[in-house]
Amino acid sequence: MSQQNGFPKPRVESEGSADRTERVESAPQKGVESARNSQQATGQANPSSDGAGNANHAAHFSQAVSSARSWVARTFPGHENAVLFGFLGFLVALLVFIIGFWQTLFIALVVLVGVAIGQKLDGDPKIINAVRRFVRENRN
Fold first, then answer.
1. Spatial CB neighbours of 14, under 8 Å, sequence gap ≥ 6
2. Cα(102)–Cα(96) distance, integer angstroms
3. Is the pLDDT of residue 34 over 90?
């Protein structure tokens, strides 16, 4: 390795091509700038700047969900919904014990409102229609 300003130049090997050297900064940097510069120097994408990292995480998450669904279907054939709602019930029980009943109820209400808004924006407001139907039937 050759040196420039007292710092060695790292050698980066890539598949199917000759070795190449990267330029090294004259003074080492600290913190976030250093991490971002090292990612750029090695050709890695910065996930926060281009959104590629988020897409990669979403792909891994959907693959994990798909694997979990197939495992549940193989392990508990015909009882997939029972397992899912049993797990959700367990999570709700944990929330009630950890943060309390009213806080858990508030979280559930806010999630329900968020889902209702999302359905409205998607053009299929099932929750809003159900609430309207319930209010209309119980006015008298």
1. 20
2. 8
3. no
The dihedral region occupied by 8, where left means phi > 0, alpha psi between -120 and 50, and beta the remainder, is beta
* Rounded Cα distance, 72 and 83, in Å: 8
Does pTM top 0.85 for this prediction? no
Instruction: State yes or no: pLDDT of 129 exceeds 60.
Output: yes
H-helix segments, 42-125: 47-50, 52-75, 80-99, 101-122
| 10-14 CB contacts, 8 Å cutoff, 24+ apart | 12/42, 12/43
Residues pairing with 11 in the sheet: 21
Nearest to 39 by CA among 57, 53, 18, 56: 53
**Helix, strand, or coil (residue 22):** coil
